Amino acid sequence: MVRAAYDDLADTYGDNFRSTGPEAPVDLALIRHFASLVPGERQVLDAGCGAGRMFTVLRDLGCAVEGVDLSPAMVRRARRDHPDVVSQVGTLTALPHADASFDGVFSWYSTIHSPDTDLPRIAEELGRLLRPGGVVLVAFQSGQGARDVSGSFRRHGHDVTLHRYLRTLDEVSRALGSTGLAEVARFERRAVRPERDSQAVVIAERPRQDAPPGPRR
Question: What are phi and psi of 123, to 5 degrees?
């Protein structure tokens, strides 16, 4: 259902969301903070890249970016708009990459359409891709329950069904922690128009093999 919806939405989404217009200044600061923590060669996977609107942001921050998305039409659009970035089709519950492939994994609101039952597997996959010392960022709407967000897309002529799942900071942090990742930052802010829900970010790290697990100081 989610794949079909975003296949239908791909060009409308790509045409209307080309950059960081929807983000608040503090959201962009959190992305900068994430990028500053990425170690090594700074190879980053944009996991749930959509049409690739965050590729330029991450590259401007010094990251070498690849993309993956559930929707073939979104990947087609990402390849068209960003032909110099490798993008491929894949699901967050079974990412098409080898273990320890990246120094950073960037999940910018890409988990929001996945039900709670998928969260442990998604966290496992995001963590699996990290090299020691690597960091993951997960952004999402905070709260509890689910919202039917189909109406906003139907107003633009797309007959799709989409639900958004709300989660707390603790729920996301626990899911990442269960895979061996250590939280290094969390943030939550109130909604600003036209948002309906509070926005949240968790950043977590794969501890280095030669250092004890724990938060970065």
Answer: -60, -40
